[in-house]
Specification:
two-stranded parallel ribbon; about 5% helix; 1 helix
């Protein structure tokens, strides 16, 4: 629901007071409170660090290179907003609508994006390390080259997302949906992907060393040339998966379902296969 209109004159006054509030370390001026407001102005390059913008309507707004660090944007409408190169570090964007927004190269370090809608958003090159994206919607999002190391993506929807060369080391993706996503050359070392849905995902040349993949669904996934050394695939579904030339050195495949999987050229040195289903496996020596 759209809120109150803010005149250009009032907005200028609010921004000037906020600038003084920041410049004097909160001794003068006033913290900007634009909660529930409708903002159609060009705010690119503006310093709104720490501003109150919860439930603010900023659809299609221009916020390129804006400083929104530590700002409260909870439940804000930012659909199709341009936030490229913006600083959103430590910002509260929980339950915000960022669908189809442009966040390319944005700084979202340790941001709260819990439950946010980022479906179709452009996040290539963005820094989301340490961010909370639990339960977030990222279906069809472009995250190519983004940094999501140590991020919390538990229960997030990343189906059909583009994640080439993304950094997801130590990330929590437990129960996340990554079906049909592109994770080619992604770094998922030490990531938690337990119970995650990776069916039909492209993980070719991905680094999954020491990753937790117990009970994960990798049915039909492309894991060719992937590094799965030391990974825990206990009880994982790898039916019809492509594991050609994959490194499974010391991997735990106990109870895994490898029916119809292609293991041609795969390195299974030290792999634990107790109770694994190897029916119709291709290339197993």
């Amino acid at each position: 629901m759209m809120g109150q209109e803010i005149s250009a004159e009032d907005l200028c006054k609010i921004l000037e007071d906020h600038k003084n509030w920041i410049r004097t370390h909160k001794k003068e001026g006033k913290r900007a409170d634009l909660s529930d407001a409708n903002l159609y102005a060009n705010l690119s390059g503006n310093n709104l660090s720490g501003a109150k913008l919860s439930c603010t309507y900023l659809r299609n707004a221009d916020l390129i290179r804006a400083d929104l660090s530590h700002a409260d944007l909870c439940k804000a409408t930012l659909e199709r907003t341009n936030l490229s190169d913006a600083d959103l570090s430590d910002a509260n964007l929980s339950d915000a609508d960022l669908s189809d927004a442009n966040l390319s190269d944005a700084n979202l370090l340790s941001a709260n994006l819990k439950g946010a809608d980022l479906s179709g958003a452009k996040l290539s090159g963005a820094d989301l390390s340490g961010a909370d994206l639990s339960g977030a919607k990222l279906s069809g999002a472009d995250l190519n080259g983004a940094n999501l190391s140590d991020a919390n993506l538990s229960g997030a929807n990343l189906s059909r997302a583009y994640l080439r060369n993304v950094k997801l080391s130590d990330a929590n993706l437990r129960g996340a949906s990554l079906s049909s996503s592109t994770l080619e050359r992604a770094n998922l070392s030490d990531a938690n992907l337990s119970d995650a849905d990776l069916s039909d995902a492209n993980l070719s040349r991905a680094d999954l060393s020491r990753a937790k993949l117990s009970d994960a669904n990798l049915n039909g996934a492309n894991l060719s040339d992937a590094n799965l050394s030391g990974a825990n695939l206990n009880g994982a579904n790898l039916r019809d998966a492509d594991l050609t030339n994959a490194d499974l050195w010391n991997a735990n495949l106990a109870g895994a379902d490898l029916t119809g999987a292609d293991l041609t050229g795969a390195d299974l040195t030290g792999a634990y296969l107790m109770g694994a289903n190897l029916d119709n496996v291709i290339g197993l020596k």
